[in-house]
Amino acid sequence: MVHQDDRGIQAARARAYALAETGRFDNLNSVKNALVAEGWSNAGAALDSEYARSAIGERCRAAQAH
Description:
The chain has helices spanning 2-20, 28-38, 43-46, 50-65. By secondary structure, the protein is mostly helical.
């Protein structure tokens, strides 16, 4: 079961990165809200690590700059 959970978290995290890169979101909270709205029930777990939070923030800022 842990393996399936890991894949689900990885998929949610990949989706969060993709959303952040669109330039439509200002910060981690808005990306997390978008994930929840899309039905990702594991959004909180996917964005729990400091690395993921930092990466999403950087991607949001970079996308906003363009």
